[in-house]
Amino acid sequence: MDCILGIDLGTSGTKTVLFDTEGAALASHTVEYPLYQPKNGWAEQNPEDWWQAVKETVGAVLKTAGINAKSVRGVGLSGQMHGLVMLDGDGNVLRRAILWCDGRTRKQCEEITETLGREKLIAITANPALPGFTAGKILWVREHEPEIYEKCRHILLPKDFIRYKLTGEFATEVSDASGMNLLDVPNRRWSGEVLSALDIDPALLGTMHESADVTGVVTSAAAEATGLAPGTPVVGGAGDNAAAAIGTGVVETGRAFTTIGTSGVIFAHSDKVTIDPKGRVHSFCSAVPGAWTVMSCTLAAGLSLQWFRNNFCGAERETAAGMGVDPYELMTAAAEKSPIGANRLIYLPYLMGERSPLLDSDARGAFIGLSAMHTKRDLTRAVLEGVTYSQRQCLDVFREMGVPIGQMMACGGGAASPFWRQMLADVYGCPVQTVASREGPALGAAILAGVGAGVWGSVEEGCGAVIRLNPPQGPDRAAGAAYEPFYRLFCSLYPALAQPFHTLAAL
Asked: Distance (Å, rounded) from C-alpha 234 to C-alpha 231?
């Protein structure tokens, strides 16, 4: 039986899924790893932890499925975007990777903007210089850790480090590279003008590919480490959200999805480059050849609920463990008992600063309106609502740009909650639905692997062959009207608190 493998390198862990060519998941395994925060607003991980997780998860799914490794037609990679991985000439990791949610590079982003000019930078890279993006991280290391920069011979994105470990190739692809502030997004190639202006040697960067291109094959050493067969093709893959788009069938204009993972994303397909001149949302190359995407990214969506669970829901975690259920199920069940508006309590989900649509790394989380009458269920509901309002703010920017959205999918851990999905539908004012497979980015990466290996002739054909949709959840108009004044108040809070946030950051 032919199979395809999808590896999804996330922030909290790596999930590897083995699929048959009809899209059925044969085996799945996840391994988690730590996040390091040496300073407030910083976020780092050890790339070798990622590789260890890949070795464990690939070996586990092959063993669980009980198949011959030679049956795997191809390997697709999905991964957290924007992270900076630096290797020396022997391929050794020089420092921990600086992640997408790290906010230390505001000064370097100002330098990039001043060097190139904001309008030119957005015209070339389709995005402003943002602390989450990779270029600022490169300049930060060059300024603060010159001895490491001097030794650096290869700069990779997180999933592309896994590609190197699997194939020995230094390569990337257009969807992930779009989030580096170094790609000529309209022309799908590295920008010589940007690299020259920032004095970054192009030789440090990987070769550029489309997402379904075969970028190398599994080496003998990697085969021994993972259990894969030597010579198995490894395709370009995609950034996590571009892979999720493939895995949810968002491959045509008018289709979009919302992801509630660690970050929160709204992602829409476009057959042309559509750029927000204010830089509030991002324009990237799609994993579909010849197409582009518009996407927003909020930095602490699911992370907000995870933070609340880890710090305030010990009893729920203990009870859930005894019941054999996810503690989030108990938390959201309690939140349903709090009314819309959480008894006049609003949560701002800016735990890691904020990207879309605020572009402010100094923004911080807050509960507004907290009183002695509030209970844990109110706080939980306020977190869910605050994250939902932050997504609606981004959706309103899409609508302002004229990006058509006729079908909204939902994916990520938050999409597993019917209560949260209904909240999204009510606040968005449009139906929200899920795909039958809950594998998201891993499925998208596997579809790309299947296209590269010749299982399907195109990305669209692959999506049509394997993706099945669940019935949509339509919006409750009365509930939507009840949310609206709280949403409007939510939108007014950041402008009122922006200066205090900046003052606090400077203390």
From this structure: 9
Q: Are residues 99 and 228 in the same domain?
A: yes
Domain count, the chain: 2
Over the stretch 241-285, which tens digit does the pLDDT of each residue have?
Answer: 899 999 999 999 999 999 898 899 999 999 889 899 888 999 999
- ∠ Cα 278 39 79 (to 5°): 60
| β-strand pairing of 238-239 with 72-79 | parallel
334 and 441 co-located in one domain: no
pLDDT given at position 60: 98
Half-sphere exposure of 338 (CA within 13 A, CB side): 25
Mean pLDDT of 74-103: 97
Q: Which residue has the tokens 């989900």?
A: 349
For 300-345, where are the alpha helices, taking DSSP H only? Answer: 302-312, 314-323, 327-335
pLDDT at 413: 87
Closest CA relative to residue 346, chosen from 506, 502, 507, 496: 496
**Phi, psi angle pair for 431, to nearest 5°:** -65, 150
Q: Residue 101 maps to which CATH number?
A: 3.30.420.40
279 inside domain: no
pLDDT for position 412: 82
Name the residue range of residue 145's domain. 3-249+437-466
Q: What is the pLDDT of residue 367?
A: 98
List the catalytic residue out of 160, 184, 240, 426: 240
Q: Are 84 and 141 in contact (CB under 8 A)?
A: yes
304 and 344 housed in the same domain: yes
Q: Are residues 238 and 363 in the same domain?
A: no
Judge whether residue 370 has pLDDT over 90: yes
Q: Looking at the structure, do residues 442 and 429 belong to the same domain, yes or no?
A: no
If you search the block for the tokens 């911080």, which residue do you land on?
Answer: 364
Residue type at position 13: G
Q: What pTM does this model have?
A: 0.85
pLDDT at 406: 85
Q: What whole-number distance in Å separates Cα of residue 17 and Cα of residue 324?
A: 23
Residue 304 backbone dihedrals phi, psi, to 5 degrees: -60, -45
Active site annotation includes 240: yes
**For residue 237, is it within any domain?**
yes
- The stretch 198-222 carries a mean pLDDT of 98
Assess contact for 366 and 379: CB atoms under 8 A.
Answer: no
Looking at the fold, whether 231 and 305 belong to one and the same domain comes out as no
Report DSSP state, residue 292: E
Can you name the residues that pair with 78 across neighbouring β-strands? Answer: 8, 238
Give the pLDDT mean for 362-369.
97
In a domain, 282, yes or no: no
pLDDT digits (tens, 9 = 90+) for 376-404: 999 999 999 999 999 999 999 999 998 88
For 340-390, give the secondary structure using H, E and C: CCCCCCEEECCECEECCCCCECCCCCEEECCCCCCCHHHHHHHHHHHHHHH
